[in-house]
Amino acid sequence: MLLTIKRKLYLPQLMKYTKYETRAIGLKRVYIRLQDLFLKWHSYHLLSLEQTVAFMKPYEIMFIPENTILLPEFSDCADPEKNIFKEKTYTTEGVYVWDYKDNKRKAELSTNGSVILQDKVLRTDYDHWSFYKDVRKKDTRPVKEVPVMIAPFSHFQEKVGYGGYFDYVFLVATKLTRIKEALPDEDLSDVIISYPPYHDKYESDYLSLLDFNPANLIDSSKYKVVSPRVITANSSHWHPNFGDIQVFKKHIEKKFKPVKTESNRIYISRKGRRQVINEDELIVLLKKFDFQIIEDIPRTIFEQISIYHNASFIIGPHGASFANIIWCEPGTQLFELFSSNYVPDFFVYLTTVMHMKYTAYYDGVPDSTVNYLDGISENMYISIPALETCLKNIFETAN
């Protein structure tokens, strides 16, 4: 009761403080300051990655060092003067597995999957944004106490941020595999896994392939999972640690080893955001070069792996499906199509570490007035004559 009264008395002072600070330093800084004040008021201490690593040192059971990769320069295939990617050196994060055990000070998960230990919120993924967004709400989740839980991810699934196939593979599945690798003598098949789920068939497919029971996945946004033992791991975000990729492939291939039966040229169509506006014309051109058209329809993990493993040349708009290039053989060509306002280098990185060939193209020039959220969803136009010249040059050079 006394705490409630204090909070009511504190609120007017906080609002008055906010009014003056807003004028002085602007809304964004005020918002961050308010978040920090709120968290301190509720005794939460949000750790940085460095602080998380230091705090969890006694519970560390695996570490895969960072890898440094030189990413080559790539010009637009239709215009050598248009530099799309500059040469740069990229270093991934080192990645960990931690096995926390304490019967007196149990771990719990926030709604977004963040691990809370002794009022400390671990930063195991990109940031604390999902935790910030949700911590202001009253927590009405029923408690589920379990002997052991695995907590592999700490963000809500959103259309713009997280929530796609690429994110699941490299931010969830690879961490689950790393945990298996760190505990080779322990049967984890019936252990509870908790985070905000992706709610897609590939999620249950990968869990089964990795010998986890999909029925043991608890939605942390609906239940507050508490345990004296939590196994968790950090992530290297959208440029995955190469050691992680190797471990992931090793474990998947124990259950499903793709067999090379063909050497196909394939076009990956997209039906969501980042569609090719003049795709009908593009498909007519690609068929002249013997490309197979892979429609954007639901497929099993086994089908996706097989399609990419049997590809010699892949072309399509930038999208999550290209996460499957980790199943390609070295020397396979990836030709990535972009809109001019969203040109990330995720697959430059992956093709480099997987020893593949890479080509890029976009029509026009970037528009500085287009914001990031619009750019990430922007559809694209492809110049058919320009692309035809690109393909002729690629195949003539190869021959």
Number of strands: 21
What is the chains' assembly state? single chain
Strand content: 15-25%
Q: Report strand order across the widest sheet.
A: 1-10-9-8-15-11
Q: Distance between the terminal alpha carbons, to the nearest Å?
A: 80 Å
Please outline the major beta sheet: 6 strands, mixed
Helical run tally: 12
Shape: globular
Helix/strand class: alpha/beta
Which segments are poorly predicted (pLDDT under 50) over 5 or more consecutive residues? 1-25
Radius of gyration: 24 Å
In which range does the helix fraction lie?
25-40%
The whole-number mean of residue pLDDT values reads: 90
Report on this structure.
This protein is of the alpha/beta class and 399 residues long. The chain contains 12 helices and 21 strands. A 6-stranded mixed β-sheet has the order 1-10-9-8-15-11, with no helix packed on it. Strands 2-7-16-12-13-14 form a 6-stranded mixed β-sheet, covered by helices on one side. A 5-stranded parallel β-sheet has the order 18-17-19-20-21. The protein is globular and about 70 Å long.
Keywords:
single chain; 399 residues; alpha/beta; 6-stranded mixed sheet; 12 helices; 23% strand
Short description:
Helices cover 36% and strands 23% of the residues. With 399 residues, it is an alpha/beta fold. The strands form five sheets. Strands 1-10-9-8-15-11 form a six-stranded mixed beta sheet, with no helix packed on it.
Topology:
Layout: H1 2-25, H2 27-41, E1 45-46, H3 49-55, E2 60-64, E3 68-71, E4 74-76, E5 79-85, E6 88-91, E7 95-101, E8 107-109, E9 115-117, E10 120-121, H4 129-135, E11 143-145, E12 149-151, H5 165-182, E13 192-195, H6 201-209, E14 217-219, E15 224-227, E16 229-233, H7 242-255, E17 264-268, H8 279-288, E18 291-294, H9 301-309, E19 311-317, E20 333-338, H10 346-353, E21 357-362, H11 372-377, H12 384-398
Parallel strand pairs: 1-10, 11-15, 12-13, 12-16, 13-14, 17-18, 17-19, 19-20, 20-21
Antiparallel strand pairs: 2-7, 3-6, 4-5, 7-16, 8-9, 8-15, 9-10
Helix pairs in contact: 1-2, 5-7
